[in-house]
Amino acid sequence: MDDQTALAEDADVCASPLRRRLWLALGYAAVGLGIAGTVLPLLPTTPFLLLAAGAFAKSSPVLRDRLYRDPRFGPLLRDWQAEGAIPRKAKAAALVGMSVSWVIVALTASRPLVPILSGICMAAVAVYIVTRPTPSPPAPEDAASDAAADGGNVSALRNEA
């Protein structure tokens, strides 16, 4: 799919070149933060990638589609968009990361209120993460027919949600 074809499909792309560049910059910054979040325990990955996908939808649908097709991040984004689901491995990684972060805060904080408040915030986030559904496994015939029907283009995902 070339750039002109993708842009003609998406009416959401900003007409203003300045706004389009700002959305593009936001998208790249969000991808960078999302990548950093894969190794930093306090920085989330998926929300930044969702922000990047939204920013790319306004600036470059080709980049948005590329993000959704990425082997590392694409499944997370597609699961979230289709079902609001978080895979078990991602839930476990988030909970372990928050637990380790809280232990570090508790051991290094100079005031007892800091670990209490951070613990309350992290517990609320943990409850939210745990209560999200896990992705349902795709039916083999559905996955093949969907890929053939849209030619591998993930623009149809936006219309399903």
Beta-strand residue fraction: under 5%
Number of strands: 0
Strand and helix order: HHHHHHHHH
Share of residues in helices: over 70%
Assembly of the depicted chains? single chain
What's the mean pLDDT score? 80
Tally the helices: what do you get? Answer: 9
From the N-terminal CA to the C-terminal CA, the straight-line distance is 23 Å
Biggest β-sheet description: none
Structural class: mainly alpha
Q: Could you tell me the radius of gyration in angstroms? A: 19 Å
Brief rundown of the structure:
The protein is mainly alpha-helical and 161 residues long.
Q: Topology of this protein?
A:
Blueprint (H helix, E strand, L loop, with lengths): L2 H7 L7 H21 L8 H14 L1 H9 L4 H10 L4 H21 L4 H19 L8 H11 L4 H6 L1
Helix pairs in contact: 2-3, 3-4, 4-5, 6-7
